[in-house]
Amino acid sequence: MPIAPVMSPDDIRRAVTRIAHEVVEHNRGTRDLVLIGMRTRGVPLAQRIADAIAAFEGETVPVGSLDVALHRDDLTERGAAVKVQPSDLPEVAGKRVVLVDDVLYTGRTVRAALDALIDYGRPERIQLAVLVDRGHRELPIRADFVGKNLPTSRDDDVQVRLYESDGDEYVRVAAPEPLEVQR
Amino acid sequence: MTTVRMAPETTLTPDSPGESAWSRRHLLDVDDLTADEVELLMTTADAMKEVLAREVPRVPALRGTTIITLFYENSTRTRSSFELAGKVLGADVINVAASGSSVTKGESLVDTVKTLQAVGADVIVMRHGRSGAPYLAARHAACSVVNAGDGMHAHPTQALLDLYTVRARLGDVRGRRVVIVGDVLHSRVARSNLWLLTSLGAEVTVCAPPTLVPRGLGDTHEGLLPPVRVESSLDRAVEGADVVMALRMQLERMHGGFVPGMREYARLYQVNAERLARANPGALVLHPGPMNEGVEISHEVAHGLQSQVEEQVANGVAVRMAVLWLVTRTRAKGVA
Question: Labelling A159: which of A13, A97, B74, B245 has CA 20 to 30 A away?
């Protein structure tokens, strides 16, 4: 059963462009700026933000990728999620790092990313950009740049798809199974 | 452990690679690993290698996990490699040497394993002089068992790190010509390497005095042994080789009249510069260590540009981290 997307490719493009402007405005330029995408879908988003900045500022911002699988505190609950990939980070010590992820939910991934980042060096500042903030934080973490605030129930399944990683592009919310059956 | 269930932050596609490619609680040998499992091990080792290169090479991935190394045979590099691998992943590592344990008081292997498990071991990394001992341990263990070498049978993590080292330099091993030279008969390293390399499509040649070749190896009929070529002349064997793997001459096992003498052996089977020149340019030289320089390998080759010996040791930590990570993933889901 098709579920109407809450963000179309155009919506995602506009959100990414706005985030790119906000990042530059907030940091008063691009000096010492580093964008780090969290695997998997944060990586293409970080690249898109960098591309947008390059387009309107004419400045190249380094982009890196971070895999936080080895830093999570909820590994046992997540069962056999075993895939780990190498992280690939530019110099972060003394930089203004913007972490980029697709969905902000409990905040545990971000906490893990903060831990991981600090092992690479001491950034001057770490900011957080997300495409979707779906609420239900379990930790005192908030995003500095948000594409869309999306109120959800804990049982909802927020699905983000991007061309680079999935060959398709949308954000949608799938309600839990029983509701779909009733329709 | 708490049993709080958490919804994933985003749903990955159900067939996303790696989610179900690993289901082993133990790693006992490489002979039954699938190509997917080997691939997952190799990419995981890549990630681990990146961790080792960090300013602070430490991640909390296995925090709260207890790893016990149980060694019935001496070892420095394998045990310290496993120990470091566990510590980099944040696990608690306890080393038990059989000589200083209740084993000397007559405790059986199974009882020792059960005791270590009761103490809280999540993983037992085991080396034993008897082939098959880790299989016995695994059958009685609720925790994970990783084979760190059993008798003359298998040494899976060594074969995996050898593969990792070769792949890092040459890429895919399919069609690559690998020569394994030396005491294959007594070598668990050789056995695991034969299985792993042939299963991935490498063309393997075994070179040794006939007394040190396992019976039946190289026979053309279908058998329980991996398909390899056996060649008694090292000069011929290294012709066109991409990888030359020298095995340690196990001096302690040379009492049975296998070779006339070490000098005779060295003259015919030593990997030296002259012989290496017959291999492909840039061919890699591997040795599982410890080396008897001047016996199975010459000093100049052991420390030459083509030698991967130090790489092997460094990669060993990353590969063992990958193994510890993967076997404990399964446990988190299965037993809990």
Answer: A97
Options 3.40.630.30, 3.40.50.2020, 3.40.50.300, 1.10.8.60; CATH for A9-74+86-182 is 3.40.50.2020
Give the C-alpha distances (Å, rounded to integers) separating A69 from A82, A128, B10, B330. 8, 18, 14, 15
**Residue B55 is nearest to which of A75, A88, A121, comparing CB atoms?**
A121
Nearest to B241 by CA among B209, B271, B211, B208: B271
Chain B, 267-326: which have a CB under 8 Å from a chain A CB?
325-326
> What are the structure tokens assigned to B167, written together?
């792949």
Indicate whether B15 belongs to any domain: no
* Chain A residues with beta carbon closer than 8 angstroms to that of B13: 166
Residue with tokens 């944060």: A42
Interface mutation vs chain A, best among B49, B59, B63, most A CBs within 10 Å: B59
**How much is the pTM?**
0.87
How many Å is the Cα radius of gyration of chain B? 20
Pick the residue from chain A with its C-alpha nearest to B88: A70
The answer to whether the CB of A93 falls within 8 A of the CB of A110 is no
Reply yes or no: is the peptide bond before residue A106 cis, omega within 30 of 0.
Answer: no
pLDDT digits (tens, 9 = 90+) for B54-112: 888 999 999 999 999 999 998 888 999 999 999 999 999 999 988 767 777 778 999 99
